[in-house]
C-alpha cells in the first residue's frame, strides 16, 4: 500500500496517465512524463510502517526521490535520461531543496501532489492513520 487507499502500482499508474494526458495537451515531452510517472516512487522501503527515530533529512519524504532515481537508472538505463532523472529526483519539491529544471518536472510534481491529496481528503482514511500513529 502507498496512500492507504491505493497501492504504489495504482498510484504510479494514475500519475503516469495523468502526466501523459496533460503533457500531451500542453505540448510537453509526454513520453518522458509517462516514464517518470511510472518510476517516480520506485523505492523499496514502505514508509507507513517506519516509525524508527531518524533525523528529519533522513525521513522518507526527503530521501525516497533520490532512491527512486537511483533504482530507475539502475534497472532501466535505456529509458532514463537527464530530464527523466530530474523529474524523479525533484518530484517531492519543496522537500527536495533542488528546484525542478524542466516544465515536465514541475508538472510531475504538481500531478503527484494532486493525485496524493485523495488520502488527505478522505476523513475516514485520515482518522485511521491518526489512530494508528497514536497507538505507536
What does this structure look like?
- By secondary structure, this protein is an all-alpha fold.
- The protein has a single domain (8-135), classed as Hypothetical protein af1432 (Orthogonal Bundle), CATH 1.10.3210.10.
- Helices cover 62% and strands 0% of the residues.
- The protein contains 6 helices and no strands.
- The chain has helices at residues 8-25, 30-39, 60-75, 82-90, 103-121, 123-135.
- Helix 3 packs antiparallel against helix 4 (82-90).
- It is globular, with a radius of gyration of 15 Å.
- The chain starts with 7 loop residues before the first helix and ends with a helix.
- The mean pLDDT is 82.
Question: Could you give the topology of this structure?
Answer:
Elements: H1 8-25, H2 30-39, H3 60-75, H4 82-90, H5 103-121, H6 123-135
Q: Sketch the topology as an H/E string, one letter per element.
A: HHHHHH
Structural class: mainly alpha
* Highest-level CATH class: Mainly Alpha
Number of domains: 1
Q: What is the averaged pLDDT score? A: 82
Please compute the radius of gyration using only Cα atoms.
15 Å
How far from one another are the termini? 19 Å
Helix fraction bin: 55-70%
Q: Beta-strand level of the residues, as a percent range?
A: under 5%
Gross morphology is globular
The CATH level-2 architecture is identified as Orthogonal Bundle
Largest sheet: none
Q: State the fourth-level CATH superfamily.
A: Hypothetical protein af1432
Poorly predicted runs of 5 or more residues: none
Number of contiguous helices: 6
The total beta strand count reads: 0
- Which fold name corresponds to the CATH topology? Hypothetical protein af1432
